[in-house]
Design brief:
Layout (H helix, E strand, L loop, with lengths): L5 H10 L3 E5 L3 H9 L4 E4 L3 H4 L11 H14 L4 E5 L9 H13 L4 E3 L7 H9 L4 E6 L5 H4 L11 H14 L3 E5 L3 H10 L4 E4 L7 E4 L1 H4 L16 H17 L13
Parallel strand pairs: 1-2, 1-8, 2-3, 3-4, 4-5, 5-6, 6-7, 7-8
Helix pairs in contact: 2-4, 5-6, 8-9
Bound molecules: 3-methyl-2-oxobutanoic acid and sodium ion.
3-methyl-2-oxobutanoic acid (KIV) binds next to strand 6.
């Protein structure tokens, strides 16, 4: 199967073929999602929550994402590897944005994602000029949770036009795609119709060009199940059962049995 590139995703939009994206931060999930035909693996700063145990992506470090990006890139062939620019790595200056973007690319990413609209256009333009494809991220932007006042749907009512204008500005600055998070479905559909580049929704309805979920939510491992999440498996129960049975077997003296034992 041919490697997915940013241009492939634009072709998918033209063909009306939905783009599939999942987060991934480690070798096994990356190889499984590759085999499953997922198009884009997002090494998201959600790793701060899903891997490192923080309650916000504000605490995710650039170095964490660099390390996880390497793991994912080494473990998949076909998917496009998209890595998040962490909180604080692009807000200070255009120079810092490019430097951190370069580090993500050298770790194995084929593109980077940053949050925000018109306020980050200089960064988007500079990254694209440096040869780094950029994905935008609008609507609820978790790195700004303290500013936004919690996990809330964005772009409602009179704020809709501003979100659409941000999306158009990101496209004009050279973004190859835009993630729409927690946006009313009619607005997400309007953005999707307006843009030539694909939109990838999370909590933004079926009218986007593709969808993304955090993999531990998708697989029922996290137990995080807000309205916009569907758990397609019950990994939490499965893993729980395995760990309980392992513990019981060890305590009962049933594991290891002779077949798991070296006699000499
Ligand atoms: O970090 C992440 O998982 C994300 C997705 C929710 C889009 O940015
Ligand atoms: Na993110």
């Amino acid at each position: 199967p041919r490697k997915i590139r940013t241009h492939t995703l634009r072709d998918f939009k033209k063909e009306g073929r939905a783009i599939t994206m999942l987060t991934s931060y480690d070798t096994f999930s990356a190889s499984i999602f590759d085999e499953a035909g997922i198009d884009v693996l997002l090494v998201g700063d959600s790793a701060g929550n899903t891997v490192l145990g923080f309650d916000s992506t504000v605490y995710t470090k650039h170095e964490d994402i660099v390390r996880f990006t390497g793991a994912v890139a080494r473990s998949c062939e076909r998917p496009l590897v998209l890595a998040d620019l962490a909180f604080g790595t692009y807000q200070v200056s255009v120079e810092e944005a490019v430097r951190h973007g370069v580090e993500l690319m050298q770790a194995g990413a084929q593109a980077v994602k940053l949050e925000g609209g018109r306020e980050v256009l200089p960064q988007v333009e500079a990254l694209v000029r440096a040869g780094i494809p950029v994905c935008g991220h609008l609507g609820f932007t978790p790195q700004s949770v303290n500013q936004l006042g919690g996990f809330k749907v964005q772009g409602r009512g009179e704020k809709a036009d501003a979100l659409l204008a941000d999306a158009v500005a990101l496209q004009e600055a050279g973004a190859f795609a835009v993630v729409l998070e927690l946006v009313p479905a009619p607005l997400a559909a309007r953005v999707t119709e307006t843009l030539d580049v694909p939109t990838i929704g999370i909590g933004a309805g079926a009218g986007c060009d593709g969808q993304v979920l955090v993999w531990q939510d998708m697989a029922g491992l996290s137990g995080f199940k807000p309205r916009f999440v569907k758990a397609f498996a019950d990994l939490r129960s499965n893993l729980m059962r395995a760990a309980c049975e392992y513990g019981d077997a060890v305590r009962a003296g049933e594991f290891p049995s002779p077949e798991h034992t070296f006699e000499k």
